[in-house]
């Protein structure tokens, strides 16, 4: 499988994790719905309208009884003359809607428009409250975990994870461990940024650690001060000082995967450079999901060399040399608009992710570089039903001036064009990298449970059919204009490379095995990959 196989250990981990994660594919307790109806539906003799997955009651519809929705959201535009019970979803009562009974959402939220009318109680509760305390033991906790993963909702708790554009609640410090050909073994400790309490506070964050092959400490120390509301409309001022080994390849492969590949198989997929300096920034949250940021960066970029060449396996293989970058002092202004409504940043199953960023560097402010770079990325995670989902990513990049090597575009293989070699879309001339790129990824994710066939192992996996398309190139090769939009008008369908394939994943999508086929050649067209993270 050449460079696409991520360690023998990863394969073993995939089997183990798939077995563990497959339990998430089991149904929640059989009597859960029965308990919920008995507890929260007042008049069980009235007609019962039951639906699975998302359901909408149109404005011209009147339901003369109770409504039960399992594993989806309920949107009410019309009239319900009984109680509403939603298990594993949200309830949205829209303008003009009428509900003459109670509304109960189990493991979800209730949203009522001002001009709607609800005569009964509104109850937001959790699965745990359906069982006596002495029964809610480890067995029920397992059911709870399976329930959440089945209906694609995150659990509620006292501690909130990092989500959307804000780091909310308590987050534990975490140890950093990685291995690569530049640092060798690295150990460190990260202190995450977070929000605590209801009054404005200073926030200290960052990380520190030691790279053994470099015999050098690395660090990032940040200080921020937020103003106004800590969640909605949060304004933040901050800055940090840093000196560490960085890479731009984390969107291609996770540090965890790369460390396993380097440690066990003698394959290091990331390219590295050293960055030291500081940045000052301010950001404004317009909502909990939508943020704008503006930063001034004062950095020095330094090429680093390969220092390590040991691996547990891999025979006589050697690490490739770490490629040099355009070293020098970079002063730049960076800005971004950022929307994130995903329900989980690592394993999203629904929501939007949109990022529009721009960076400008010029010798007028003391920089050794002069360029402008703009990147747009859009992702959509759309649940089609309880057992199927559509994931889409569109990404485009462009620039003016001469992009330094560490800012130029390169991709291919893992997480991008999966039928192609790793970083196949990059310039062969290291002095002039690619400054234009387009990428589109489409994944149709489906569970065999949609067929209602009782095949235990088969049903405990999910299957992904995917299609990738894109390319990268240099503006100067196709246009004599140096503007951000120049270099795209020449494109035709023949200029876009593509591939397609299928992947088998655990229920959550945390681990997967995939095979992809490129469409531009019949010679060695297939690529295989084990992954420990979702591609996007």
Architecture overview:
The chain is mostly beta strands and 536 residues long. It has 3 domains: 1-30 and 370-536, membrane protein fhac: a member of the omp85/tpsb transporter family (Porin), CATH 2.40.160.50; 31-139, no CATH class; 158-325, no CATH class. 10% of the residues lie in helices and 41% in strands. The protein is built from 5 helices and 31 strands. The protein has helices at residues 8-22, 32-40, 138-151, 255-265, 456-459, and strands spanning 48-52, 55-57, 62-63, 66-70, 74-76, 79-80, 84-87, 91-93, 98-99, 103-106, 110-112, 117-118, 122-125, 162-163, 166-167, 174-180, 184-191, 202-211, 216-227, 235-246, 273-285, 290-303, 328-340, 351-361, 371-385, 388-401, 436-446, 461-473, 497-506, 512-518, 526-531. The strands form 5 sheets. A 16-stranded antiparallel beta sheet has the order 16-17-18-19-20-21-22-23-24-25-26-27-28-29-30-31. Mean pLDDT is 86; it is low at 1-27 and 136-163.
Task: Specify Rg, calculated over alpha carbons.
Answer: 26 Å
CATH domain topology of the largest domain: Porin
- CATH class value of the largest domain: Mainly Beta
Question: How many helical elements?
Answer: 5
The CATH architecture assignment of the largest domain turns out to be: Beta Barrel
Main β-sheet description:
16 strands, antiparallel
Query: Could you give the distance between the termini?
Result: 22 Å
User: What is the beta-strand fraction?
Assistant: 35-45%
User: What is the CATH superfamily of the largest domain?
Assistant: membrane protein fhac: a member of the omp85/tpsb transporter family
